[in-house]
Amino acid sequence: MTQTTTARQGNGSDKGIFSNTAGFSTLITVTVLSLAWLAGFASRLFAVIRFESIIHEFDPWFNYRSTAYMVEHGFYNFLNWFDERAWYPLGRIVGGTVYPGLMITSGTIHWILHTLNIPIHIRDICVFLAPVFSGLTAIATYLLTSELWSRGAGLFAACFIAIVPGYSSRSVAGSYDNEGIAIFALQFTYYLWLKSLKNGSVFWSICTALSYFYMVSAWGGYVFIINLIPLHVFLLLIMGRFSQRLFVSYTVFYIVGLLMSMQIPFVGFQPIRTSEHMAASGVFALLMAIGALKYLHSLNPKGQWKQLLILGGLAAAGAVFLVVVLLTYAGVIAPWSGRFYSLWDTTYAKIHIPIIASVSEHQPTTWSSFFFDLHVLVCTFPVGLWYCIKNINDERVFVALYALSAVYFAGVMVRLMLTLTPVVCVLAGIAFSILCDQVLREEELPTQQDETEESKSLYDKAGKLKKRTHEQPAPVDPGLGMNVRSVTLILIMILLMLFSVHCTWATSNAYSSPSIVLASYGNDGSRKILDDFREAYGWLSQNTAEDARVMSWWDYGYQIAGMGNRTTLVDNNTWNNSHIALVGKAMASNESAAYDIMTMLDVDYVLVIFGGAIGYSGDDINKFIWMVRIAEGEHPKDIHEADYFTERGEYRVDSEASKTMLNCLMYKLSYYRYDSGGSPPGYDRTRGALPGNRGFKLTYLEEAYTTEHWLVRIYRVKKPDEFNRPRLPLAKRTVPTSNTISKKHALGGGPMTTKRRKGMLKNKPTIVKGKKAVKLE
Amino acid sequence: MKYKLLLFLTVILTYYEGYAQTRGKGLEEKVQQLTDLTVKKSIVSLNLNKFKEYVKSPPRDYSFIIMFTAMAPARRCAICQHVYDEYLIVANSFRFSPAYNNKLFFGIVDFDEGSDIFQMLRLNTAPVIMHFPAKGKPKPADSMDFERSGIHAEAIAKWIQDRTDVQIRVFRPPNYSGAVAFSMLFILVAGFLYLRRNNLEFLYNKQMWAVCAVFFCFAFVSGQMWNHIRGPPFFHRTKNGPVYINGGSHGQFVLESYIVAVLNGAVVVGMILMIEAAGGVKNTEVVRSQAEGKRRRFQSVVGLVLVCVFFSLLLSVFRAKTQGYPYSFLFK
Fold first, then answer.
1. How far apart are CA B186 and CA B12, in angstroms?
2. Where in chain A is the domain with CATH 3.40.50.12610?
3. Which residues of B touch A380 (CB under 8 A)?
4. Is B223 on the interface with A (CB under 8 A)?
5. Contact A404/B216, CB-based, under 8 Å?
6. Would you say residue A625 has pLDDT above 90?
7. For chain A, N or C: smaller number of CB within 10 Å?
8. Contact A389/B297, CB-based, under 8 Å?
9. Residue A472 gets which letter from DSSP?
10. Neighbours of A363 (CB within 10 A)
11. DSSP state of A678
């Protein structure tokens, strides 16, 4: 596919490959792009080589599970799939709550390969999908940059995006997530948009809309496109760059794109009902108004049309804005949703939506993460931006807007670094291309001069040889001189080399961990694999009932469903905050209160992650404070965040920790029977403290399984008849002949036994209550 | 016999009623006085006598939230004013909320008016917000911890809800300053454009727009948004002198981000110098004299040095922050 696309690019001037430099340039283009694809693919394979071909992290497990379901049951069954294994007892309508583009993409590849009799497992397709798509992204970036500047800049940009850590962070082998294919769709849509804007042809606009449709089906980030393109159009209108090309390309794109985006079940009627999409329709109306005014103007070119045009345009803009505001107030259009709103009001999520604030991806970005993800590009892309604005045209307005909006969003949220990376690659490619162009072009000038000055008799021959270089008419010393240029070239080479080693290092060290398999390195460099997660999920799938319900914090929901194949209460699709808060409340309550919640939710097993033995910092105790916060948001009467801190406001687990903390379920499940981890047995290596509450017994739960390194601990919730049973001496256990009811009466008589049999009240509530009441009076 | 009993009962009842009245009179009177005071001003300002009468003496069925502060300018308590503003918002929200009742009152004690109270409660810092519950003495948790929860009105309201179960929905008087500033800016820009309506060339000045865009990029790439949201210190003071660079990769200081922005900017300037020296984008044929060539060569070398030095500096700052980062250029 690369070859064909790029070959078509070069075809225009490609007559004979050896007589024409265009032939060489096509060859070079194709070679560079294939090498970029290869390098991008290879640099994403660290995880597969170090561990195995395995799906990573959390969300990819759900994507993999639903892809496997689709491959097995067919597309229509997938669209109608009601998953009763998730969000017990609510369930989840998967077909209507998922962006199906990813599953369809890999399902299609699977189908094609199987039609060709290549028997490949769907898991391998899922694992290698993102690295393959990184090559397509490189090509799309090449095309986009060629539209903006030149093909040389395009090649630079393609090479940059193939290996830059900001993009490979989301597209290493095994990270089977929407972003992997969405960045390709994003770049390709932008390329087609610029193409259609340049040509003003309906064909390219339809292509843009189709590509946009693919993007909508793949990722929620399509909102970025449907706001950025209208913004571009709006800015072009303000700058007085209205043209028929603009009119045709935008209106066609908007209408077709709108209709197609509404075909995705998850999106549905949102494009006409929510504020996030209103910019597009507003600009559409405005463009129509201005088009009409222009048409009137063309009917009668004389007269006071210019002022009328400006006034009419302003009035139309005001009217459109007012209509949108009024409709929002009337409730026809939904206001901005919290997730988007928190991009503008940056403190909004922190106060109102703890579940968004709790995710580490949603934190703001420090300069060092910018540098880590982009390295030399971060300080060269402003150069590209500078020259794009200095030599502005319709397309470069777009790239400037893209850069400025993306840099803002990336500053607000680490996660959106992903949308910044492509534009940074484009602009840095332009910057490097300009510099290289200048330095390399003039390199040939002095030699030409030297020759012309020294030997005029050889002028003809030398001139013929040098014909393909640019001929400079000025005979005087024109440029920088050999030394400066070579040093500059060497510097560029060093910078690019530093960039590539940095990219490899960052991808290898930071982004290639599957996170379900951990590796630790000994002092002698030997590697130890900690496979506790899969051990635990394997145990669940082998040793528990088919329909057992497992309660865990939402981070592990997809993994339990994907690997353990058991029903979960909450998972990474955090659509129901109150359900999550209920689980958080259970974890934050003491054992008996938690037992009530757990019986209410029919929980059979509880799974907690405990990293104290190996010093794993991402465990549940460290996340616990967010469980408390989310629970407090829904149950302010029962849970108070302050109770979990010490008097001095510290979050501790040792003997100075607060009483609530030491007795909550999460604490007990983490530290129950814990005696590993260092010199004093029971030392917590993650928190660096000796737990304050040790040697306790569990009443309502029992330990079912603990993995090798204590990382995953699974507990079984006891049935009501299994705990708090009165202890009878052996001799009394065999009562030969007796009426059971009378025995219960005898046991329940004394005040002591009443207390001990508290858990049994449920069975015989009326009898015991009646007795108490009588006694009190 | 019957009448005797009746009489007896009546006597007893009257007696009890009277007793209750005498006992309750203090309470009712106090509540009435406090309610009258709060009608005028939602925060009751207390001196020693009033403090003893309303807060310390026993017949009491209301909780009292009291802020101990030192508002006098001579005391130089900068934070006191902020805390007072927030506290006032909470008190006003309660005063004008539908849940308003006479079970909760807000008071203030200024150090210059009631230093005896400070001594009595052994307070030696200000500001402090304390809760005096209706029954019993204040516990340690009855003084609010600003360090942990912050001084925002919402935090104070939440703490009050924790202590007294009275829920106060904080109603901030709408902050018009942002809107006013925005409209002022808008009017200024519009007026400026109107004044220069005959000469709008500067709007087409690409240089200006490019500079704005590039500065915007520097601001965000150097993490100003992080500073805005997290509010880190300007730089860190230690015993061994000031520290400008945060040691971890998850944090940064304000000064540090400025330094990084300057480093980035220097690299960009260097690169633009190099490109311009080599002829710029359009490669226009400028007059190429010997002197011109020399100047351009010099400019190019300056650009080269800028890029090299400042990029290596950036790299070494990054290296210092990232543990185990192996690469560096020119400087360690």
1. 78
2. 529-719
3. 267-268, 271
4. yes
5. yes
6. no
7. C
8. no
9. P
10. 18
11. S
Res. A7 pLDDT band, cuts 50 70 90: very low
For A139, residues 6+ apart whose C-beta sits below 8 A from its C-beta are: A1, A2, A5, A6, A33, A37, A158
Please give the pLDDT value at position A381.
92
Interface test with B, best of A150, A239, A365, A367 (most B CBs within 10 A): A367
Which residues of B fall within a CB distance of 8 Å from A382?
213-214, 217-218, 264, 268
Band of the pLDDT at A721, cuts 50, 70, 90? confident
The label of the residue with tokens 């400066």 reads A484
**Which residue is associated with the tokens 């390199």?**
A443
Q: Would you state the CATH architecture of domain B26-164?
A: 3-Layer(aba) Sandwich (3.40)
B152 touches chain A (CB under 8 A): no
Domain covering A529-719 assigned CATH 3.40.50.12610 in the classification: yes
Contact A624, A666 (CB under 8 A): yes
Instruction: Test B271 with A435 for CB contact under 8 angstroms.
Output: yes
Shortest Cα distance, chain B CAs vs residue A766, angstroms: 34
Residue with tokens 């206001």: A335
- The 3-state DSSP composition of chain B as helix, strand, coil percent (nearest 5) reads 60, 10, 30
Give the pLDDT confidence of B93-103 residue by residue, as tens digits. Answer: 887 777 777 77
Q: What is the rounded distance in angstroms from the CA atom of residue A162 to the CA atom of residue A492?
A: 19
The boundaries of every CATH 3.40.30.10 domain in chain B are 26-164
C-beta atoms of B249 and A376 within 8 A: no
CB A611 within 8 Å of CB A619? yes
Judged by a CB distance cut-off of 8 A, whether residue B203 touches chain A is no
The answer to whether A98 and A177 are in contact (CB under 8 A) is: no
What residues 635-654 of chain A have any CB closer than 8 A to a CB of chain B? 636, 640, 642, 645, 647, 649
Band of pLDDT at residue B7, cut at 50, 70 and 90: low
